[in-house]
Design goal:
By secondary structure, the protein is α/β, with parallel strands linked by helices. The chain contains six helices and nine strands. Strand 5 and strand 6 form a beta hairpin. The longest helix has 18 residues. It catalyses: (6S)-5-formyl-5,6,7,8-tetrahydrofolate + ATP = (6R)-5,10-methenyltetrahydrofolate + ADP + phosphate.
C-alpha cells in the first residue's frame, strides 16, 4: 500500500510539472475537442441529471463549455461541493448562478455551505476529473479520494472521465479503493471504454 501511495505521489508531481507548461490555447483547443465527444455520447444525451465538475483555470481540462451545453439543453446540472472528506452535489439554477458561485480555498467556484445538497441517487451521469489515466481505465486523482468515495456509494451512475492528451500515461498505480470509469475521453479520442458501453460511443 505504501509503495502504491508513493508511486501515485510521484505521478502527481510529474503530471503537475507537465500540465503547468501547457499553453492556454492548447488547453482551450483540447477542452473543446473533448466537450464535443462528451455531448455525442448516448449516455449523455439520455441523461437528465448530470454532475459536472467546475475546472481550475489552468492545468486541467476546462468544463465551462460542457456546463453551458448541459444548462442550455434543459438538463438539470449539479456541481461538486467538498467539505473535509465529504463531497456532495448542489444543483445549479442557471448560468447566472454558475457565474456567481464563491471560490473555495483552491480558487475553484463552489456552492456555499448553506445550500441544500441533492440526493445522489437522482443523478444519472457524472463527469469525472483526474490527474492521470491509462488505457486500462485506471485513474489517479488528486489524492483526496472524493470521487472514489462518492462513486462507491452511487454505482448506478454513468462515469465519464475526461482528460488532456498529456494526462494519458502508460500505467497508473491503483489500489482496491480506486473506481474505474465507464469511459475515458481525451482530445485524441477514446482512451478506454468498458465493454458494457461500447454502443454508447457512437
Amino acid at each position: 500500500m505504501n509503495a502504491i501511495r508513493t508511486s501515485k505521489q510521484k505521478l502527481r508531481k510529474r503530471m503537475h510539472s507537465v500540465l503547468s507548461q501547457l499553453s492556454a490555447s492548447a488547453l482551450t483547443d483540447q477542452s473543446c475537442r473533448v466537450a464535443k465527444q462528451v455531448v455525442q455520447l448516448s449516455a449523455y444525451q439520455r441523461a437528465q441529471h448530470i454532475s459536472i465538475y467546475i475546472s481550475m483555470d489552468s492545468g486541467e481540462l476546462q468544463t465551462r463549455q460542457l456546463l453551458y451545453d448541459a444548462l442550455e439543453s434543459g438538463k438539470r446540472v449539479y456541481v461538486p461541493r467538498c467539505d473535509g472528506t465529504f463531497m456532495d452535489m448542489v444543483e445549479l439554477q442557471g448560468k447566472e448562478d454558475l457565474e456567481s458561485l464563491p471560490k473555495n480555498r483552491w480558487g475553484i467556484p463552489e456552492p456555499a455551505k448553506d445550500r441544500k445538497g441533492v440526493d445522489a441517487s437522482a443523478l444519472d451521469f457524472i463527469l469525472v476529473p483526474g490527474v492521470a489515466f491509462d488505457t486500462a481505465g485506471n485513474r489517479c486523482g488528486h489524492g483526496k479520494g472524493y470521487y472514489d468515495r462518492f462513486l462507491t456509494g452511487n454505482p448506478h451512475l454513468f462515469k465519464c472521465a475526461v482528460c488532456l492528451n498529456e494526462q494519458v500515461v502508460e500505467t497508473v498505480p491503483t489500489d482496491e479503493f480506486d473506481k474505474t470509469p465507464d469511459i475515458v475521453l481525451a482530445a485524441q479520442g477514446v482512451v478506454f471504454q468498458s465493454k458494457s458501453v461500447n454502443s454508447d460511443t457512437s
